[in-house]
Amino acid sequence: MVSLSTLDNNLLNQNRGIKMDKKFIISEIKVSIVKTQSAGADYTDHAKGHWINDTIIANPMSKYPEYHESRSSWGMDAIKGIFIEISTEGGHTGFATAYGGYISSWIIKNHFNRFLIGADARDLNLLYDQMYRASMPYAGQSGVVVNTIAGIDLALWDLLGKIRNEPVYKMIGGKVRDKLQTYVTGPQAKIAQDLGHVGSKIPLPYGPGDGIKGLKENQEYIMETRKQVGPDYRLMIDCYMALDVPYTIDLTNAVKEANLYWIEEPLPPHDLESHKHIKQACPWQKFATGEHTNSRYGFRKIIEDRSVDILQPDITLCGMTEILRIAAMASAYDITVIPHCSGVYAYNFGISSTITPFNEFINLHPTAEKIVPIFGSIFTNEPVPINGEVTLTDLPGFGVEFNDAVELEEI
């Protein structure tokens, strides 16, 4: 049976005078929950004891003693990852790992599918805009709904690359460098340095709720790490939305001698205005943010204010179509864009971006002592850095293949 959405979209294309090309016409969208642990875009879905969840890391909930010791205690890993597959009438399929769990699955099946089935997969701007506008009554500029659109967008880019038999980085401008340099996020800065990465970003242990004692311990931890890696190595700290303006200023002053390359996401994403105040108070320090800001509208003000030095949109949360818009805005102000996490999606962007000097590699080994793929086991051939560099192939789409051993629950 042909769906009403298919008929509507086919009629729309006919009215435009467009000849239908079956290889581009979307016939099906499948969405599944990723059941296998340590697989997919939810980088917090790991076994108990993993450093990213079960070590003391400052976060928005660490002010409450009952949630201080572990980020999994308050549900950081509750939403889960999804896997999106989009097929066309011509028999082509593109896919993406994304974020949003059962919420995203419901939205795709009950709302967004009407815009997709029967549509031309090449109409990326149209489809993104229709999904974004149609979800305005129950969504904002960031969060699960926008993350759902991002996942669909990535699957469409993968699909188009496979139909055209070229990698996504070629479709967004081509390579500006042969290899990507990487910095590592994780608790083992010296290991990252020894493995040849250009920098290391360590998680901040304590926040405002830990008082002067916690501030002192943060200072000692950062200064000791600086001693381990030497004075000239890029060292950054990740504050994960845990701080407020006074604490950020106190911390920045306390570790001024550490010469941090940047301080990341000290403030919650809704408080973009306050980035101006910390930058004015500490003009010598570079600040970064953007992981939890998922649209160009959220970045507009901090770009105009120049209150942040490095923008960090997460491509699994905003999509390739949207990060290209964000990067275009940033480039007019000479602001650096280094995507948060995002694995192969960020690599395809980074290798084609003139304002991205290097990429993030988050070390998701349980103790951060070995290099493992960012998306775990969901792909059979995800590129990982070797001697601190990532090399991309010329395989079509995002260049990765799904691992059939990963368990999916189709919704």
Uncertain runs: none
Helix content: 25-40%
Write down the overall geometry.
globular
Question: Number of helical runs?
Answer: 14
Explain how this protein is built.
The protein is built from 14 helices and 13 strands. It is α/β, with parallel strands linked by helices. It folds into two domains: 4-42 and 79-165, Enolase-like, domain 1 (2-Layer Sandwich), CATH 3.30.390.10; 171-392, Enolase-like C-terminal domain (TIM Barrel), CATH 3.20.20.120. Strands 4, 5, 6, 7, 8, 9, 10, 11 and 12 form a nine-stranded mixed sheet that branches. Strands 3-2-1-13 form a four-stranded antiparallel sheet, with helices on one face. Strand 2 (81-88) and strand 3 (93-99) form a beta hairpin. Helix 1 (4-15) crosses helix 3, helix 3 crosses helix 5 (144-164) and helix 4 (124-134) runs antiparallel to helix 5 (144-164). The chain is globular. 48% of the residues are buried.
